[in-house]
Amino acid sequence: MQFQLSGQQIEVTPALREHATAKLDRLTRLDEKILSLNVVLSVSKLQQKAEGNLSVNGSVLHAEAVESDMYASIDVLFDKLTAQLRKHRDKICDKHQREVREERQYG
Question: What is the pLDDT of residues 26-64, one digit of tens each?
């Protein structure tokens, strides 16, 4: 999986990079077929913003979080991406099970 962390009007410190990669383990535990994750951190006045694009097989999941602390915005971003990934994975599993069930029923 490719992981890219960049900053817009902010320098990405090693502590921010380490915090983001620690949160990345939650996503990889959910789905091992993640293709890439792009995270952009930005600052505007008092708002710390984190945006993320998660590429999985067949779709791209997008989330963003705005908080007063950059670490908190990274946490909220990964919470949102985790929820979206769970929902996406459940949709795919349900669709696959439905196809198998129909095939067994109609032969």
Answer: 888 888 888 999 999 999 888 999 999 999 988 899 999
For domain 2-106, give the CATH number: 3.30.160.100
For residue 84, give the nearest of 92, 5, 6, 16 by alpha carbon: 92
Each as own residue / partner, the long-range contacts of residues 79-86 (CB below 8 Å, 24 or more positions apart, any chain) are 81/27, 81/37, 81/52, 81/54, 82/26, 82/27, 82/30, 84/54, 85/27, 85/30, 85/31, 85/34, 85/54, 85/56, 85/61, 86/30
Its pTM stands at 0.84
What stretches of the chain adopt beta strand conformation (E)? 2-8, 36-44, 47-56, 59-67
84-107 pLDDT, tens digit each: 999 988 887 776 676 666 666 665
Q: What are phi and psi of 65, to 5 degrees?
A: -140, 140
